[in-house]
Amino acid sequence: MAFAKTNGWTGAVIAGCSKRQKEFQFHDPPGSIICVRHEDHRPKDDNIGKWLVSGTKVLAGHFFWDFRLMAAPPYLMVTTLRNPLELFVSALQFKHRDETRTLAGATRFVTSQMRTILGLEGLGQLGFIRVFLNDTGAVGYNPRGVYTHNETWAMAAESVEHLNTFLVVGVVEQYEGFVEVLKHTLDPGLENPSVWTTGAKVQNNKSPVSSRDVLRNIDPYLVRLYNETRLDLQWKVYEVALQLWDSRCREVLPRSDHERYCDVPRHADILD
C-alpha cells in the first residue's frame, strides 16, 4: 500500500470482515479495506465489490484465484508462498493463539494436531494450493473430505498452471530478495527508495513462538512422517514456485546479487 500511496494511486487490502462491518473502510495508514466473506473470499455484495475492486489501482491480501476477474484488465500479479511445513505450524498458531502462546504449549498443540490428522483417512492437505484454484474448486473444497489421487493431482496441476501467470512468484523464506526483485521490476528508476527500504524490514509474523522452534521441539519422526504423507502435494507445488522464483530473480537482479537475494533454504534444511 505504501507503493500505491507514494505514486498517488488508489490502494486497498482485501480482508475477511465480520457481518457487521461495511463493504469499504477507510484507513490511513495502511490504506482502505475491501471486505470479503470468509467462506468464499467474495464481497458481501458482488456489484458493489466489483465496482470497488475495478476502481482500485493496487490490491493486496488473501483471496482465491477467480477474484482477479473483478479487477480491471490489464493487470499484473505477484504472490509469495511459504514452505508447507512451517506454514502448517504458523496457521495453527494463528488460529489457536491461546493454546500456542508458549513453546511448550505450541509443541503440545501442534503434536496433537499432527497425530489427529495422521489418523484421518485422506491423501493430504491442499493448503495454499486451494488459493490458486478457480472458484468451483476453491469454494467447493472440503478439508475433511476424501479425494482420489487423480482429483488431488488435478488440483495441483491447476494451481501450477495459474502460478505460471504471475509476474513474480516469491517465497517467504527469501523475503528480502522478493522485495529487491519487486523494486527492480516495479520501480527500475528507484523513484521511491524509502518504500523499498521500509518494505524490506517489514515483519508481519506476530506469532509469539517461531514455527521453526516449534518443529525442532517435536519428535523428528512425527514431523517427517507428517511432512511426507500429508504435505507432499504442497511441496511439489512449492518446488515449482521455487523454480519460478529462482528464474525471475536471476533474470532481474545483477549476478553479484544472486547469492544474497535468490538462494532459498531447501526442504532438508527445515527438517535438520
Can you offer a commentary on this structure?
The protein has 272 residues and is an alpha/beta fold. It is built from 13 helices and six strands. It has two domains: 67 residues, no CATH class; 196 residues, no CATH class. 47% of the residues lie in helices and 9% in strands. The protein has a four-stranded mixed sheet with strand order 2-3-1-4, covered by helices on one side. It has a two-stranded parallel ribbon with strand order 5-6. The longest helix is centred in the last third of the chain and has 21 residues. It is globular, with a radius of gyration of 19 Å. The relative contact order is 0.13.
How would you summarize the topology of this molecule?
Blueprint: H1 2-6, E1 11-16, E2 24-25, E3 32-36, H2 46-54, E4 58-61, E5 78-81, H3 84-95, H4 103-118, H5 135-140, H6 149-163, E6 168-171, H7 175-186, H8 193-199, H9 211-216, H10 220-230, H11 232-252, H12 258-261, H13 267-271
Helix pairs in contact: 4-10, 6-11
Report low-confidence residues grouped into runs of 5 or more.
Answer: 26-30
Cα shape = globular
Beta percentage is 5-15%
Helical/strand content category: alpha/beta
Q: What is the mean predicted local confidence, pLDDT?
A: 86
Radius of gyration, Cα only, in angstroms? 19 Å
Structurally, how many domains make up the residues? Answer: 2
- Specify the oligomeric state: single chain
Main sheet properties: 4 strands, mixed
- Count of DSSP H/I helices: 13
InterPro entries: P-loop_NTPase (IPR027417)
Core attributes:
47% helix, two-stranded parallel ribbon, globular, alpha/beta, 13 helices, 4-stranded mixed β-sheet, 272 residues
